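Regression check, magnesium ion case 492:
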Amino acid sequence: MTTALAWPFVYDSTFASELGELAVPWAPAPVSDPRLLVLNEALALELGLDPDFLRSPEGVAVLAGNAVPEGSTPVAQAYAGHQFGGYSPRLGDGRALLLGEVVDGQGRRRDVALKGSGRTPFARGGDGRAAVGPMLREMLIGEAMHALGIPTTRALAVVATGEQVARETLLPGAVLTRVAASHLRVGTFQYAAASGDTALVARLIDHAARRHHPEVVDSPVPALGLLEAVVAAQASLVAQWMLVGFVHGVMNTDNTTISGETIDYGPCAFIDAYDPAAVFSSIDHGGRYAFGNQPAVMAWNLARLAETLLPLIDDDIDTAVEAATGVLRGFGDRLGAVHEPGMRAKLGLDTGAERPGDPELAGDLLGLMHREGTDFTGTFRDLAQAARGDTEQIRARLAGVAEIDSWLARWRERIGPDGEAVASAMDTVNPQYIPRNHLVEEALTAATAGDLGPVEELLRVVSDPFVARPGRERFALPAPAGSGRYVTYCGT
Ligand code: AMP
Ligand code: MG
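Current build output:
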């Protein structure tokens, strides 16, 4: 059984106390032999937690779900969601529990939750557990996103359970501790709205607004204000994904946050060869969640959020729909307002406003990269070298592309004479290191076999993505030729 532990870990639980209808109190299922695999010390310190304590047997017991911190009433959160476009009225935390909320050193309220902590009333057919590989993957990709400056949930720790989980084969089990601005999702609103209890939706709006978008609380129509704030946050998020080549892979409405953080690192991957049609998930046959489709899918998900808010936007449905539609229509412009300057910065054109010809310059390079299957991340670093006067690498990268010389000439003309300054600025936005799929796979395979060295090394590399460092050359290389298509999986 789980024991209560005196530990200043969870200070509060406004979600459970304000929105009890959406929270089912539930205890984690203890595991036989918990062992700390990776602790995120920087995040622990940010939260005001003592890393040494987290490494102690008492700390590991909490991170494994074998002890519950005093003052915490863990809950499974209820939510619904559209998965690949099909609506499920009841998903919820099938294998996760919200321990509570911590106020960090900067006064920000953060959720602390366990993932893989046993079956809950929402588990349906699932075993409530998670495997070491996918949980370390969530930590790796989340830390990479964080280091790239992209809003994301983060892993505080991954603990091995000492038990096995049955997937296609038997795998070592793990529990991940996830830290998030909150776990409120579009699916949380869908669940509340489907209950027919408008007062509950109103309370959820107020809770979400206070937590994430406080400027909305006193706006004339908070439901509309919240929609606008979430549209803005998610437009910005997806624009940032597009700028680093991130494919989320399972953009269901239950995996779309109200905070605007990236959540749920299941079948995600970074593209290597630039291709808007890139899909990695084994089940995404139609390419619904393909790289280039992400803006459209997010707009669709936000429309599902808007539907839940309509009764609180206006009593007259036509008026409500018109107001919500007006806000949703702003999504594209908001995305462009982040993506277009972001793309100019990637290209070294970050000299204030867009100039005539800039979109064509970007579009033409992407077109060449697409046609040639060129490595997205590497090309932008090569381009910075070209700004420094060394075009050898980019010409080698795009070998055989007759148009590259004329493109480079146009681009040189545009960036002007101070190539060194342009290149330095480019290197602060174009990562040298991303969690490349073949490296992630290699590291997780080693970890699953008991060797954490490669995961620790990759974590260090992707946590410091912008400065090229000696000895890390192989981390910047694309997958070896002939590696085959990379495939990722849900339900891990
Ligand atoms: P995901 O694909 O991770 O977003 O999960 C979708 C839904 O399936 C959520 O309700 C999860 O809680 C649930 N789920 C996924 N894996 C498991 C599992 N092993 N046991 C119980 N529930 C699960
Ligand atoms: Mg999910």
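Comparison notes: Residues 222-244 form the longest helix (23 residues). The chain has a mean pLDDT of 95. No diff flagged against the previous build.
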